[in-house]
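Long-time lurker, first post. I've been practising inverse folding by hand and with some scripts of my own, and I keep getting stuck on stretches where the structure tokens seem ambiguous. Below is the full token string for one chain I'm working on. Before anyone asks, I'm not after the true native sequence, just a reasonable design that respects the backbone. If someone could post their per-position residues I'd love to compare against what I wrote down in my notebook.
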């Protein structure tokens, strides 16, 4: 091959590489995340939250019964935040929690608890939460769906360093994380809801129930103290 052909071949390869790079750059970040999405057993990291996430705050569950968060102390709790009219992300979180509930088996309710708090209390009353839990096959022992006044929900979310926000069209911003609260009421782990595996969550919940160290997704250790 002569020098001119070699030069042309190299030029073509450079141009193709540039085109590929530009094409990747134009893919929205959320789509790139979806392309790389999957169940990551290490999709969590230790948090240092000095706030008591289980205060003497009384909310209502999906059956209309009063639940004092303080009464949940003594067992680890996995929290997520959803709303029943959410068209997508909340359904994904609930299905992820359902996998965790299934993996826990009889330990759910006896050794650990799951709690889903609505971020849309203006619309999500016990009736709506009960319908949602039933439609998702998630109305099981040990898993509470909670609502309250807007002020109560805002106060509870603030303990997780979260702010409830509404868009201009009235929709509610999603909370895509899950939180592991130790038996003393303090959050010790935070997870990416779309990535945490049931196996990893169960291992952390069981460790917290036994007062053992909880491993983060980055290999470090957060000691559960209570």
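-- Answer (accepted) --
I ran through it position by position. Result:
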């Amino acid at each position: 091959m002569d020098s001119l052909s070699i030069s042309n071949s190299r030029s073509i390869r450079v141009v193709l590489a540039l085109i590929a790079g530009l094409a990747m750059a134009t893919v929205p970040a959320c789509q790139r995340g979806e392309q790389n999405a999957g169940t990551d057993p290490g999709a969590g990291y230790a948090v240092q939250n000095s706030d008591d996430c289980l205060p003497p705050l009384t909310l209502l569950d999906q059956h209309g019964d009063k639940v004092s968060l303080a009464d949940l102390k003594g067992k680890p709790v996995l929290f997520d935040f959803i709303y029943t009219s959410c068209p997508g992300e909340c359904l994904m979180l609930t299905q992820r929690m359902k996998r965790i509930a299934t993996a826990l088996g009889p330990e759910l309710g006896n050794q650990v608890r799951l709690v889903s708090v609505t971020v849309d209390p203006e619309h999500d009353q016990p009736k709506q939460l009960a319908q949602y839990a039933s439609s998702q096959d998630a109305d099981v022992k040990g898993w509470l769906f909670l609502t309250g006044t807007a002020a109560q929900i805002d106060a509870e979310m603030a303990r997780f360093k979260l702010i409830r926000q509404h868009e201009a069209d009235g929709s509610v911003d999603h909370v895509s994380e899950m939180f592991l609260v130790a038996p003393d009421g303090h959050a010790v782990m935070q997870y990416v809801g779309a990535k945490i595996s049931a196996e990893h969550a169960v291992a952390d919940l069981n460790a917290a129930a036994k007062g053992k160290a909880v491993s983060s997704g980055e290999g470090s250790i957060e000691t559960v103290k209570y």
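A couple of notes from the structure itself: The chain has two domains: 3-35, 44-222. The longest strand covers residues 77-82. Happy to go over any region you disagree with.
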